[in-house]
Design goal:
Blueprint (H helix, E strand, L loop, with lengths): L4 E6 L3 H12 L5 E7 L2 H11 L3 E5 L7 H6 L6 E6 L3 H4 L8 E4 L4 H14 L8 H11 L7 E6 L2 E6 L3 E7 L2 E6 L4 E4 L3 H5 L6 E5 L2 E4 L3 E6 L5 E5 L6 E3 L5 H7 L3
Parallel strand pairs: 1-2, 1-3, 3-4, 4-5
Antiparallel strand pairs: 6-7, 8-9, 8-12, 9-10, 11-12, 13-14, 14-15
């Protein structure tokens, strides 16, 4: 009979936490998720109180990095890092004999981590935090922009990403809709925009990219579609494409 490991999932993105918990349900004979945390300070508190066997720990969080969390822990659980760093960079983690999951997390890669736990019962808990931080610093990508430029003649309007509700392809044009109900014409295609905007934006069909942070409600719709009601002044109602059904389920942990 397999040993049951208690676990805490730490990630500042709610969708990422839901996805991880859903993936771990397939391994409920080995992993028992007892709690979750949405930032570094909350993680330190809950890990100290609950003393889990394992922590699935995001590296990049707004208040503290995953390394800073480890540095402040008084207990030493197993750590499996979750990170969006490129594969070539994250391979350096192997030097420290720890485990990591590269986002978007794949089921087969998660299974490898759990198989290690089942086989050995323990991962390396003597983590060289300073060494890992230096590796990450070397591979650190330049800070992404916080606003999207819209050109109107000789004038450039900077739209803050947090003020964008969604982007819409309409005939030959693409419009950027803001939370106050304004819309701006851009000469970019939606596909080109996907390469320029941060991960909080998600494509739900060929005509729409939405700001996940501006979703007010989600409802199941006809034929495997989902209705997204946006938290903007018009209360925009956007329907996903049928072919995006499985991707949306995974992204939002449905």
């Amino acid at each position: 009979m397999n040993r049951l490991f208690s676990a805490i999932v730490v990630d500042d993105e709610p969708a990422a936490r839901r996805l991880m918990k859903n993936l771990l349900k397939e391994h409920s004979d080995v992993i028992n998720v007892i709690d979750e945390a949405g930032n570094g300070r909350e993680a330190i508190q809950k890990i100290g109180e609950l003393k889990p066997d394992i922590v699935f720990l995001d590296i990049q969080m707004p208040d503290l990095t995953g390394f800073e969390v480890i540095d402040q822990l008084t207990v030493k659980p197993n750590i499996i890092f979750t990170t969006a760093y490129e594969q070539y960079a994250i391979k350096a983690f192997n030097t420290f004999s720890i485990d990591y999951l590269l986002k978007p997390i794949r089921e087969e890669r998660l299974k490898q981590s759990i198989d290690k736990l089942k086989a050995f019962g323990r991962l390396n808990t003597s983590i060289d935090v300073t060494g890992l931080q230096e590796i990450i610093r070397q591979f650190q990508a330049p800070q992404k922009s916080t606003a999207f430029p819209i050109k109107t003649g000789d004038r450039i309007t900077l739209l803050r990403f947090e003020n964008i509700s969604y982007m819409e392809a309409q005939d030959k044009y693409v419009y950027v809709h803001t939370v106050d109900g304004q819309k701006y014409l851009t000469d970019n295609s939606l596909t080109a925009l996907q390469e320029k905007i941060p991960s909080q934006f998600y494509r739900i069909q060929k005509s729409y990219i939405i700001n996940k942070d501006r979703i007010r409600e989600m409802h199941r719709h006809f034929n495997g579609r989902y209705l997204f009601i946006m938290d903007d002044k018009p209360g925009s109602r956007l329907t996903s494409g049928r072919t995006y059904h499985e991707e949306i389920k995974t992204e939002f942990g449905l």
